[in-house]
Amino acid sequence: MKILFAASEAAPFVKTGGLADVAQGLPTYLAKNKDVDIRVIIPYYKSIKDKNDKNIKFLTSFGVNLGWRRLHVGIFEAVYKKVKYYFIDNEYYFNRDSCYGFYDDGERFAYFSKAILESLMHIDFIPDVIHLNDWQTALVPAFLKAHYGGMISFHQIKTLFTIHNIEYQGKVSNEFLGDVLGFGEEMRGVMSYEDCINFMKSAIVLADKVSTVSETYSYEIRYSFFSHGLSEILKQYEYKICGITNGIDTDLFNPNKDKNLIVNYKAGEIEKKEENKRFLQEKLGLPQKSEVPVISMISRLVSHKGLDLVEYICDEILSMDLQLVVLGTGDKRYENLFKFLQSKYPDKMSANIEFNSALASWIYAGSDMFLMPSKSEPCGLSQLIAMRYGTVPVVRETGGLNDTVKPINVLTGEGSGFTFKAYNAHDMLGAIKRSVDYYYDKEKYIKTFTNIMKINSSWKEPSKKYINVYKEIMQY
Ligand code: GLC
């Protein structure tokens, strides 16, 4: 089967969030199956060009219509880990200092979606399925229907639309329909929602199937608490929604191979993990106490990651005998909060307001517990990485956190982490306290440390499920 995976970012070329990891990990795994010819298509951003990667080569160029505009499309290509990547080049739209955040993002990604379809004839690849991801590629089904319906070779192309985060939908004003998309009034009903043009809504209506990045999230988004306004549409189309929980690249996230670590370790090797803990404490200027639990957070510092809960009870957390390590950037409110806490509790708190992948490895390896109290979490990758490094997650039961972390039974030691249900600061504190008590129950704690490192969180199972979905929609 021929699959084109379209996304607005893919590691290692460009990454701002978890989508980029999925756009690398899933295609790489699918490519191991000899029946699958999978290729990835992303924009050719300035940041990719600036790296001057000699493997990225020019393939072809042509023009595309977007409403009344005639626009240039350049196609570059590269092969990475046996997967072919295409890069869509347009200096006007993509030669900018960041991937997103511009006044014309709607137009930029409308262009990208149209260019994806137009390029199929030029790259000589008519896929069975175009796998679309998030709002930036959500216009593909609409263009396919409105502008490519007359092309016989496109008739059999099916679309799967994956929602990584429903918060960002691609909303633009009503004039966009004719002016930018070049659609007639007959498309307005499909494209508009609550008095604007909504890219994601159109994909939910028009794609052959819609998936989310965890099973729980696929149900949650049918409720208004999670849906950012789209619950009614999702309920209407629930027959085509499914959830497939993400995997991670277990070769990349492997404490036994991670070059950043001072000592590599496997499941069961608790002394080596403790060496990583001492190293982390030393690097961060925290007292090197092996008996004190280190709880970490690696996250974007924004409120839906549950930071308002942490803020609410930070003094209660830090009055306990533990060390709290935070890594990430985000809202000033939280950056300042953690810096302030570090000055107030210098022996207990380490605030690292930065991106730093070596430090991230040290933290995953050197901490005992990993806190992720998200308000909503479509999947979440950090809890999977933490478990891979034998660090016990403390999470709220939502989205992918609910699907990947099984509550620990403190009597038997079964399960993989500590969880709480209600979005409530003291429920979170309760889970933290339970994890700290458990930490002192050394025998059981070591059993959990050993077990969670053995959980298979690779793309093996998810990729089988994607193949089944591709097969299903190819029959429509
Ligand atoms: C988004 C979601 C995150 C998910 C990632 C990859 O960033 O917020 O939960 O893990 O996409 O699907």
List keywords for this structure.
alpha/beta, nine-stranded mixed sheet, 21 helices, binds alpha-D-glucopyranose, 476 residues, elongated, six-stranded parallel sheet
Give a written overview of the molecule.
With 476 residues, the chain is of the alpha/beta class. 39% of the residues lie in helices and 19% in strands. A nine-stranded mixed sheet has the order 3-4-5-2-1-6-7-11-12, with helices on both faces. The chain is elongated. The mean pLDDT is 97. Alpha-D-glucopyranose is lined by residues 17-19, 22, 164-165, 213, 246, 377-381, 400. Alpha-D-glucopyranose binds at residues 17-19, 22, 164-165, 213, 246, 377-381, 400.
Furnish the topology, listing elements before pairings.
Elements: E1 2-6, H1 18-30, E2 37-43, H2 46-50, E3 57-66, E4 69-80, E5 83-89, H3 91-94, H4 105-123, E6 129-133, H5 140-147, E7 158-163, E8 171-172, H6 176-179, H7 188-191, E9 192-193, E10 196-198, H8 199-206, E11 209-212, H9 215-220, H10 224-227, H11 231-236, E12 241-243, H12 270-284, E13 294-298, H13 307-312, H14 314-318, E14 323-327, H15 332-344, E15 349-352, H16 357-366, E16 369-372, H17 382-388, E17 392-396, H18 399-404, E18 418-420, H19 425-440, H20 442-453, H21 460-474
Parallel strand pairs: 1-2, 1-6, 2-5, 6-7, 7-11, 11-12, 13-14, 13-16, 14-15, 16-17, 17-18
Antiparallel strand pairs: 3-4, 4-5, 8-10, 9-10
Helix pairs in contact: 12-16
The chain binds alpha-D-glucopyranose.
Alpha-D-glucopyranose binds at residues 17-19, 22, 164-165, 213, 246, 377-381, 400.
